[in-house]
Amino acid sequence: MKRRQILSSLGAAITAVPAAKLLANEMEGFPHDMALDQAFVPTPAKVGAPQVLTREIDRRTVSAAFDRLIPADEHGPSATQAGCVDFLDAQLAGTFGQGASLYRSGPKAPGEDALMQKPQFIATPRERYETGLRALEAYAQRTHKASFADLEPEAQDAILAGMDDGSVELAPEVNTRAFFELMLANVREGYFADPMYGGNKDMAGWKMIGFPGARYDYRLYADRTGEDLGLEPVSLIPKD
User: Fold this and answer.
1) pLDDT tens digit string along 18-54?
2) Cα 213 to the center of its chain, rounded Å
3) Helix-strand-coil split of the chain, %, nearest 5
4) Which of 81, 110, 149, 192 could form a disulfide with 60 if both were Cys (CB 3.0 to 4.6 A apart)?
5) pLDDT score recorded for residue 91
6) Among candidates 218, 226, 188, which has minimal Cα distance to 27?
C-alpha cells in the first residue's frame, strides 16, 4: 500500500491554494440582520476522555490501522497526530455511531448484498467497529502471535491490504472488506473534516492540500481558478 495513496483522489478534487492572511474586504457585504437559531449551531466534539473507544486495545488497534492508512511524512502529520481517532470516537458516540440515518429493520434477505451491489447492514457503525476491531486484534494474535498495534509496519500493511482485496477474512461474523472500507472512509473524513469535529488538528489536512476552509463568501474568488489566493484556512470553531 503506497503512502498517502488514499489521499490522491480526494486531494485532486479540491483546488490547491497556499495559506496567507485573510483579506479584510471578504468580511464585507453580508447580511447582518439574520437571527441565528442555536439549534443549528455546530457543537464542538468532546476531545479527551474516550466515549466509545474506551478499551485501550481497541484504541491502539484503530490508531495503528489509521496511521498505516495515513502515515506521517514530509507533507503532513499522521492520522492520529491529526486527531482522526478523536474524530472517530466523537462520531461513534453520536448519531453516526447509532446508525440514525440508516434503514436497519430486518429481516435481512439472503443475497441482499449482491442485489444492492454493496453491503446492507443492520448493525450500527458503532457495533461494526466493536466487532471489527476485536476481530482484527484476534487475527493478528492468531497469525502473528502479537497485537496488531505491535506488528512491524510491513506486517500491518499486509493485513490491511488483504482486508482491502478480500484475501484476508478476519472472522465469519465480520464483513472484512466492508470494515476496511469503513475505516478508510472515516480516516479520510477525520483528516479533512472541519476541526470542529475533533480531527484535522491545526487544520493540517487543509494546509496540506491548500484548502481555505469554511469561509462565509467566495464570491471574490469565483473567477480566479488556479490562482494563488493566499488565504489562511478558517474553521467553524467560534473565536472568542
Assistant:
1) 433 444 445 555 556 655 566 666 677 777 789 999 9
2) 16
3) 50, 0, 50
4) 149
5) 95
6) 218
DSSP state of 228: -
b/e burial code for range 197-222 (CB count within 10 A of at least 16 → b): bbbbbebbbbbbbbbbbeeeeeeebe
CA-CA distances (angstroms) from residue 132 to 26, 108, 154? Answer: 46, 20, 21
The overall average pLDDT reported for the chain is: 84
Q: Is the pLDDT of residue 129 over 70?
A: yes
CB 67 within 8 A of CB 3: no
Q: Cell numbers for 24, please give them.
A: 479584510
Structure confidence at residue 100 (pLDDT)? 85
Cis bond leading into 107, ω under 30°? yes
Cα separation values, 192 from 21, 125, 212, Å: 21, 20, 12
Sign of the CA dihedral running 211, 212, 213, 218: negative
**Position with higher pLDDT, 159 vs 42:** 159
203 near 6, Cβ under 8 Å?
no
Which SS3 state, helix, strand or coil, does residue 133 take?
A: helix
Amino acid at 226: G
DSSP element (H, E) containing 208: helix 204-209
First to last CA, the chain: 43
User: The pTM is what?
Assistant: 0.78
